[in-house]
Amino acid sequence: MELKKLIVFGIIVVLFSLIITFLVRFARAAEVIDRADLAWLDRALIAHRGLHDENKTVPENSIPAFRGAVEKGFIIELDVAMTKDKKLVVYHDKKLRRGLGLEQYLHELTYEELSQYKIFGSAETIPLFRDVLALVGGRVPLLVEIKNEGKVGEMESLLYEELKGYQGEYAIQAFNPFTLGWFRKNAPEVIRGQLSGSFTVSDYEVEYAGTTRLPGYQKFLLENLLLNFTSRPHFIAYEVNHATNARLRSLRKLGVPLLGWTIKEKAEYEKAKGKFDNLIMDPVISEITGGLPQ
Predict the structure, then answer these.
(1) Which residues pair with 143 in a beta bridge?
(2) Looking at residue 189, what DSSP letter applies?
(3) How many CB atoms lie within 10 A of CB 173?
(4) C-alpha–C-alpha distance, residues 292 and 257, integer Å
(5) Whole-number pLDDT of residue 108
(6) Which domains are delineated in the chain?
(7) Dihedral over Cα of 276, 282, 288, 293: its sign
(8) N or C, where is the chain less crowded by C-beta within 10 Å?
(9) How many other CB atoms sit within 10 Å of the CB of residue 81?
(10) Statement: residue 261 has pLDDT above 70
(11) Cis? peptide before 200, omega within 30° of 0
């Protein structure tokens, strides 16, 4: 009798393990498409928020930063947010303290109000997304990060409308899997990438940029890509400093291109360059390449 109980218990454990494995694989699965459609993703290194100089004279996410990246042939990564009056602008932070010195949030101001302020003490203002599209004009690919932590639909629809007529290679990416899920349903032809990482947020990021601290269960789900069943991404962009060898092996099993973000020092580049298909890089990109893509 005891032997029979042990056998039954063993069968239950095996079945339970198989079910859990199946569910996890289903939840994390990506959408594999023809690699030819993604060939541009590793054509050149990716300039994080354009080719800036850590906001000394050329601010991040500014027209000069994007112009510099185009001139050097880098892929451009940029951030898109929405103002109070539903204008799409290129800016990273939710809160305006770090970039504009204001104790307000971007969504609380209209574009006209935002335009009264210079970013990072420069001569530049926050650009409209459509103006950046016009500047780049398809000369280099774009990696468009959508900054939406709220209700999905309105912002994504507006962004899709602006991209419809764009003649150039681009992909969208987001930390929010529901944003990608909107594109999966309404614009499946748009290449989409799931951003992920540790979701660790510093006090500075909270105070100056308004970055959200997620509860533990959300961090667990997003860190482990367990909401991919919503987004079904065509590629993954993962935090370099959180990508252990075991995690990299797990990510590779998804069968889609893997990008790493964000390289800030040359030592990080040397350590990461063979582990990812491409890297999203801050100003060190110029130091490493001599200003030329490689």
Answers:
(1) 77, 171
(2) T
(3) 25
(4) 23
(5) 98
(6) 31-289 (3.20.20.190)
(7) positive
(8) N
(9) 23
(10) yes
(11) no
What is the number of residues in the chain?
294
142-146 and 258-263 strand pairing: unpaired
Spatial separation of the C-alpha atoms in residues 234 and 32, rounded to whole Å: 6
68-87: pLDDT as tens digits: 999 999 999 999 999 999 99
Tokens of 263: 């390289």
Scanning the structure block, which residue is given the tokens 């309105």? 154
Q: In the block, which residue shows the tokens 């200003």?
A: 291
Instruction: Report whether 72 contacts 292 (CB < 8 A).
Output: yes
What whole-number distance in Å separates Cα of residue 201 and Cα of residue 133?
31
Give the tens place of pLDDT for each residue, 122-138: 999 999 999 999 999 99
Nearest to 132 by CA among 220, 68, 209, 86: 68
Q: Rounded to the nearest 5 degrees, what angle is found at the Cα of 231, between the Cα atoms of 226 and 232?
A: 85
Amino acid in position 207:
E
* Residue among 246, 239, 250 at smallest CA distance from 201: 239
The residue written with tokens 């990482």 in the block is 197
